Amino acid sequence: MDKAKKKKLSNFFMMTLGCIFLATGVYFFKIPNGFATGGVTGIGTILAKITPISAGIWIWTLNIVLLILGFIFLGKGNGFKTVYCSMFYSAITYVLEFVVPLSEPLSNQPLLELVYAMLLTSIGSAMIFNSDASSGGTDIMALILKKFTSLDVGKALLAVDFLIASSSFIVFDVQTGLFSLLGLFSKAFIVDTVIENLNTCKYFIVITSKREAISEYIIKTLHHGVTVSKVIGEYTQEEKTMIHTVCRRIEAIKLRNKIKEIDPKSFIIITTSSEIIGRGFRSV
Fold first, then answer.
1. Lateral strand order in the sheet of 201-208
2. Quick one: which of 143, 169, 240, 252 could link to 202 by a disulfide (CB 3.0–4.6 Å)?
3. Residues in a beta bridge with 177
4. Can you give the pLDDT at residue 205?
């Protein structure tokens, strides 16, 4: 299997797993507690409380409507990934209503359930975003607003989500409303943190006299590029080579150990980067 197919398969797996995390957090923790933290899920949770229609059906219906609007106003650029994630996540939520029916929260600890709700949905959303996809919903509305208005889309969506979360004060109670607002404000930070950790890479600067052996290991074993330059140590006046390379976090320990094995006198600087854009890593 070539690299392109492996990457597509990896992205598909990441999107699918992200949808499962998202649906699990929504169904088991958000909906039973009335945590309306914005978006289609929040609207579905509110509407399920004031109508005889379940939250799963509302979420699925709203996502379908928004997808149709996306295709009308945005064209095919709406993307297969968004359609897949939106429908798969909605379908899981709907199926869970029949497979594991819930009439009340899993526990009598709403703060604990809010933590699980935000962790699971944030991890799921981050995995989906990291695969260059989205779960649809208000993301589609954001793209439509961006295309046809001069509104600050980020602020407009935050205002809408704030109204959705605030409505839980009226539909449910004060405690649920406060939890919903807390969840709304915490989600963005959790999603950003998870995405940064998923994309964490290590940047190596290696000063060595064994350039050939180290470069060969990086290129042939780790399959990453190498940039080199000649340097002179001011203290020793020795001429050596400075190697620049980047690798994924799981490769960093192997590379560090291999460098010290090849050249015990090498000088290594390792820094952390939250994102590397380029061949072998992420594309824009």
1. 227-232, 239-248, 201-208, 267-273
2. 252
3. none
4. 92
> 189: exposed, middle or buried (C-beta count within 10 Å: 0-12, 13-18, 19+)?
exposed
Picking from 15, 130, 26, 18, the residue whose alpha carbon sits closest to that of residue 81 is 15
**Spatial contact of 228 and 215, defined as CB atoms under 8 Å apart:** yes
Identify residue 151 by its one-letter amino acid code: L
What amino acid is encoded at 88 in this protein? Answer: F
Q: Check if the beta carbon of residue 120 is closer than 8 Å to that of residue 4.
A: no
Which residue segments constitute the domains of the chain, with CATH numbers given?
Answer: 3-198 (no CATH), 201-273 (3.30.70.120)
The encoded tokens of residue 136 equal 């649809």
Q: What is the pLDDT of residue 151?
A: 66
CB 185 within 8 A of CB 232: no
As a whole-number percent, the residues of the chain with pLDDT over 70 amount to 90
| Most confident range, picked from 58-72, 144-158, 213-227 | 213-227
Local confidence band at 204 (pLDDT 50, 70, 90 cut-offs): very high
Residue labelled with tokens 């392109």: 4
Given pLDDT bands bounded at 50, 70 and 90, which one contains residue 77? low
Q: Which amino acid is at 252?
A: A
Contacts of 120 (CB under 8 A, 6+ apart): 21, 22, 24, 25, 29
